[in-house]
Design goal:
The protein starts with a helix and ends in a 6-residue tail after the last strand. The chain is built from nine helices and two strands; from the N terminus they run H-H-H-H-H-H-H-H-H-E-E. The protein folds into two domains: 84 residues, Rna Polymerase Sigma Factor, Chain: A, CATH 1.10.1740.10; 77 residues, Winged helix-like DNA-binding domain superfamily/Winged helix DNA-binding domain (Arc Repressor Mutant, subunit A, Orthogonal Bundle). With 169 residues, it is mainly alpha-helical. It has a two-stranded antiparallel ribbon with strand order 1-2. Keywords: Sigma factor, Transcription, Transcription regulation. Belongs to the sigma-70 factor family. ECF subfamily.
Amino acid sequence: MGDVLNDIADCVPALRRYARALTHDPDGADDLVQDCLERAIAKRSLWRPIGPIRPWLFRILLNLHRNALRDRRRRPVTTPVDELADILPAPGSAFERAALAETARAMERLPGEQREALLLVAVEGLGYAEAAAILDIPLGTLMSRLGRARATLRQMTSENGRPILKAIK
């Protein structure tokens, strides 16, 4: 039992990063992570140790986020532009900082489904199968969303047809 709680605790930094990228609100992200941890601890008997606990936690967090979005549809949501840039390591040059901020703004403009997939794979470093399981979609659908997200980001962050950032693969 203690091992499960330790495994959950080890995942908190990754959950916070993902929650901040999804919500664009540090306080809202902390609340989302807290709700996720409360649910995971309360329901830990439902987790079956057939693999890592991290995807299960991400799934809980994502479901809570989606439920909150459904509940807030009537209220407008404001999105701070540079939240994603604040949680990523700061690049060295002014050009790199500007390119990172531009990429963060472009990611905010992606459709939610594409942004969720891209954040899990590119920012959190999850494998395709793991990300597809978290999002509860087929692997092909994940690959399609990633392809569209990357193409859209390339288009939004290019200058005269040339990509500003080479990191977008």
